[in-house]
């Protein structure tokens, strides 16, 4: 019954402890230096190994998606502005037509008032004569 010597196991445990302390210090340093979002991406890069290439592809894809979204937003905005300008001109034309009709109706009403006054005068004069 041989017991394994503690001396043989101690160096391995000691080395593992050193690695654990160094790893903990590195993680603490990352937490202090990097914000939470970048820390998350750093941890993903460490875990995946080849994530740098996929992250670059993802960034390119995100930039392309952002660019397409930006262009579509600009096109839609341009269409909406054009439609609003069209509505403004259309409304201006309608208002001009209505105001010209009102002016002509005002003239007609004034002429009718004059005719009414002339008829009343004539009737008054004819009553006086009778």
UniProtKB/TrEMBL annotation:
Keywords in UniProt for this one? Membrane, Transmembrane, Transmembrane helix
Question: Which Pfam families does the entry mention?
Answer: DUF4577
Q: Where are the transmembrane segments?
A: 64-89
Report which superkingdom the organism of origin falls in: Eukaryota
Q: Does the keyword Ligase apply?
A: no
Where would one find coiled-coil regions in this protein? none
The keyword Nucleus appears for this protein: no
Region (Disordered) residue spans: 37-56
Q: What is this protein called?
A: LSME1 protein
Where does this protein come from, organism-wise? Sterrhoptilus dennistouni
Q: What gene is behind this protein?
A: Lsmem1
């Amino acid at each position: 019954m041989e017991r394994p010597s503690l001396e043989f196991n101690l160096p391995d445990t000691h080395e593992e402890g050193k690695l654990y302390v160094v790893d903990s210090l590195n993680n603490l340093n990352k937490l202090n230096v990097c914000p939470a979002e970048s820390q998350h991406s750093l941890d993903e890069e460490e875990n995946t190994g080849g994530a740098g290439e996929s992250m670059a592809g993802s960034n390119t894809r995100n930039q392309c998606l952002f660019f397409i979204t930006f262009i579509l937003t600009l096109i839609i905005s341009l269409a909406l502005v054009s439609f609003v300008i069209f509505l403004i001109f259309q409304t201006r034309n309608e208002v001009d037509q209505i105001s010209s009709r009102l002016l002509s109706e005002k003239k007609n009403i004034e002429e009718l008032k004059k005719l009414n006054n002339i008829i009343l005068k004539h009737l008054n004069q004819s009553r006086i004569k009778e």
